[in-house]
Amino acid sequence: MDKFDITYFYGPDGENIVKEECVRNMAEAGITLATLNFGYEVNKKVIPLLEKYGIRAYVEDAELKNAYWENAEDKVSDIVKRIVSEYKDCPTVIGYDLTDEPGKENFSILSKMVDAFRRYDSERECVINLFPNYASNKQLGTEGYEEYLEEFIKTVKPPFISYDHYHFRGRDARDEIKSDSGISERERLIRIAAEKEDDRGGFFENIGMVREKAKKYNIPAMLIVLLTCHGPYRDLTREEISWEVNMSLAYGMKRISYFTYWLVPYDDFWRWDNAFCDLEGNKMGHYYDAQVINKIIKPIGEILFDKESLAVFHIGTGEKGAEEFNSFGSIEKIEGNAAVAGFFEDGYIYLVNYDYKNENNLTIYSEEEVSLYRDGEFIPSGKTLTLNINPGEAVLIKTTKK
Fold it and tell me: How far apart are CA 256 and CA 78, in angstroms?
């Protein structure tokens, strides 16, 4: 990664992506990175439009995907050579999207793919999105999630970690998902993992473990957050979406992705609703929610992008595995309701309201001067700072010696 980007998983179809209005809407929503999976001829038509609106791109390749699913390691090198030659003169293309949610049995061929891209095109990224920590050991192919992350990083040697975690459920309950329901075993396991009535635990354990592995192996990390209502996942409020994004930044994620940008065609189980755009490209409610959020978080993401995440503390959240704040650096005490504090090098601190329904009053006591980020600048605020943080929102502060 070379800068903070805002992207998505599942975007416009091939018929709409070639329309300037579609690309303009993406840019105006705050999207800075798109995925092109339409084949070389269509992708080449879209790239000039993306360039016009300042959007970069990943590309997918159907032949490479087939080699992945067939575990055809002997075909990888020639396919990668061909892909690299096709896009070698396209500076808008910054990487290659390889697959989504692989199990351990797929790590060997992914290692071959990543190695081939490094040999033939070392300047571009390879994107592999991992399972969340609520996937079963059968899906992971390991005895637990930490082993899954370790095996992936050691075997594949990815340029960064990408994963998804969908926290907010409660849309409704469903009947048991049986093996004879006419779907693949992979899809059945995904549905079982999703199927609960209440909000899912483990969000902070998941992001905390990913953060630790990213630091251990000195690679960046990104999170795909829930946006689109589907299956048991409820229709989120703007505050809930903001909560996901801000928690990601507090934990040092270097890129944000939304699931989904485009509405997925309706089916009786997932019942997709309220993405950025519907199937015809019309803006839906979440377009405007994410547009507001992206405008706020983009400059913050840019500031924190090259800052090392030093520590993350919780203030009264009671979350499993979270470290309760005592003191850190020049910050002696933080008083108030439940919050999360991400500490970064050079004195940057990102404070997130843990509550996505109510405001939070926090008071920060510091040994050094504290400045509050507002409207593109840091405003000196003394050594004691009292803040009112809206539901699910966050503030960026910086401590400096006077």
Answer: 32
Residue ranges and CATH numbers for the domains of the chain are 5-304 (3.20.20.80), 309-400 (2.60.40)
Which has more pLDDT, 267 or 183? 267
Collapsing DSSP to helix, strand or coil, 374 comes out as strand
Q: Which pTM does this prediction carry?
A: 0.93
Tokens of 385: 């700072």
> Alpha helix (H) ranges present in 88-202?
107-120, 137-140, 145-156, 185-194
DSSP SS3 for 253: coil
User: What are the DSSP calls for 322-350, one per residue?
Assistant: PPBP--BTTEEEEEESSEEEEEEGGGEEE
pLDDT at 171: 82
Neighbours of 258 (CB within 10 A): 28
Q: What is the pLDDT of residue 338?
A: 97
User: Cα(113)–Cα(343) distance, rounded to whole angstroms?
Assistant: 35
Distance of CA 401 to the CA centre of its chain: 34
Q: Which two tokens stand for residue 138?
A: 């059968």
**Nearest C-alpha neighbor of 260 from the set 239, 229, 298:** 229
Q: Which two tokens stand for residue 80?
A: 């990668």
Q: What percent of the chain has pLDDT over 70?
A: 95
Residue 321, pLDDT above cutoff 90:
no
| CA atoms of 285 and 235, how far apart (whole Å) | 10
Task: For residues 387 and 393, give the distance between their C-alpha atoms in angstroms, rounded to a whole number.
Answer: 12
Alpha-carbon distance of 23 to 18, in angstroms, equals: 8
Q: Which of 237, 273, 268, 272 is nearest to 174 (CA)?
A: 268
Report d(CA 233, CA 229) in Å as an integer. Answer: 6
Task: Dig out the tokens for 4 from the structure.
Answer: 């903070």
Task: Tally the C-alpha atoms within 13 A of residue 166's C-alpha that lie toward its C-beta.
Answer: 26
